[in-house]
Structures
1.
Amino acid sequence: MGTQTLEGFPSDIVVTDPAEGSVTVTVDAAVYPLEAVYGAAYIFIDRCYVLLDRPKAGAYAVTLTEKSGAGDAASRRAMAGELINELLTQAWRQKIIEENRVVIETVTAQALAGSMAEPSLDDLASFDFSEDSFDDPLGIAMSWEEKYRKKTPTEASGAEASTEAKP
Amino acid sequence: MIERRFHKELYAPAAVQGAVDAFARFAQIELSDEGDYRVVRVSARRPERERKVAQELGNFAFGLSRKEGLA
């Protein structure tokens, strides 16, 4: 008995081998990076035998065989579905990591630099203590009283005028 | 005899070699290089043992590849 299609999945993506109790999912390498394929397949290593392959250029194939023996079609379908969902999760995670890599590295570098040592006297001498460089457009650094105090009639009329001037 | 083909882009050569070394005492294992693949052939007296060793060897090679950060 050879490979068969699995109900509910496209035949060019998921095939199953009932005799082996395996299911093979083939995905486009342009959509799912190798790290995502690795991460998704690794999730199953405790309950399945995992085999990765490159059946053709631009594609990865993941074959899962249940360790507990040949299950029925329903269990193989559930396994394939779980793998495909996990592939999407891992691909999305990779994308987020890529997009935030600069932010993460910058914050980490600043945290490490800040914990290196106390500032020297020269550092303090050259530090800019003026408030000119401090930008607080959302008023986060303002005290509650300062931010929510009752406005004087002059301030209130000024605020209305600036609101009306806006389109 | 059971054959397992490990693509070089997906499995680190050292990982496949490490897996072969780890399972060499459970069956007769041959390792060869064929184009894009490193091919492992597992032979044992009983077919079930061949199958089991080949499958476990595959998982072991996968785990080592991931540990070494090939991908």
Note: Chain B is about 45% helix and 30% strand.
2.
Amino acid sequence: MAARIRDAIRANEGIDVPLGAIDITLYRDDLTRIGYAPVVRESEIPFSVDDRVVVLVDDVLFTGRTIRAAMDALVDYGRPRAIRLAVLVDRGHRELPIRADFVGKNVPTAAGDDVRVHLVEVDGRDEVDLVTRVPA
Amino acid sequence: MKWTRHHVLDTDDWSRDEIETVLDQTRAMIEILQRPIRRAPPLRGRTVILFFAEASTRTRVSFELAAKALSADVTNITASGSSVEKGESLYDTVRTLQALGGDVVVMRHASSGAPYFVAERTDAAVINAGDGWHAHPTQGLLDAYTLRDALGDLDGKRVVIVGDVLHSRVARSDISTLVPLGAQVTLSGPPTLVPVAWRCGQPPRDVTYEPDLDRALEGADAVIALRLQRERQESGLLPSLREYSRVWGLTAERVARMQPRAPVMHPGPMNEGIEIDSAVAHGAQSLIETQVTNGVAVRMALLYLLAGAGTAAPVEERA
């Protein structure tokens, strides 16, 4: 998603925005609760974040805990001038005081629902599914 | 792959999947070590006890840096200056470790099997940092990582291990990590310092013995020189250090028999001029310093896998 936004900025504004990826596994607040060690993927931030505006991009904003972890991870790389947040879907149910600066669509959901985002680059199709659990 | 092991005692019963999981996690840990702030929080509030009953500097420091990079609290127990020197038994030391409440015990001991004894008697996760002649799993894993990183893929690659194989826990652990990844291991060294069963009988799968080092190195993809302990000569297993160096020492001329740019490794500390020439040890093909750097990352990966997720009952994971 971030790569697409980067391409759109390049096409429309002619500005090349550097792109990185951050893995938040080691910063999760539930590591001691999930009972096993989730796979850590390599973060790749091939530029200095110091004094820059960094836009975090995620598919779905839910509890806000992932974004909290991402912000903690990001500040280990330096001191950005500002951190902004862009998400495709904001499904509500925040557990932390976090809000997105750019939202594709607000989708009201129940807490037990699943929101699944598919992208052409990964899944071969662009699609957002809202899966509602039917009470038994 | 879901990680299920509670201890790291020996890699000889590990699957290729398990070894690759550790090596893949190591890659992520190396990235942390390259950041401006070389510290991540997953072991916050956890205690790692380093229990070294045998001399060691680099392994102990490596574990200490690894634990600290993951924000664990680290405490040291060494044999000299501790109750071990006052005659405390291993059993009583274990009871003490248990009472101190460490989450991970990293231990080195001169007796083969000592970490198993400890692992059976404590709730902590035990990592073997070298036990007697038996195993040194973190060295085996860091050597596998270093070689895989340098050669891309170990399938079908031929790795020569030269030196005192008989007394070497490093050789045993290297074999048990490199062979499952597809490497062919050629052992070389004086017949008196290679296990008789491997020399005359059946060596482990994908391991061969070649007494002539020049022949062993011909076309090889990498070489690992083992440390020669000087007391081996005193015990009559070697005529002289000079002869050992002449017949089994890694010289630039011998290294040239391998594939171009084939890596040269050594677990350290080196006897330069005996098992390895200074020119080779510090030459362009040497990965000896890379091994030390990678060692910290491998140990971070293991500490994370053993302690990062804690011991709480698993709950369903949410996005």
Note: The radius of gyration of chain A is 16 Å.
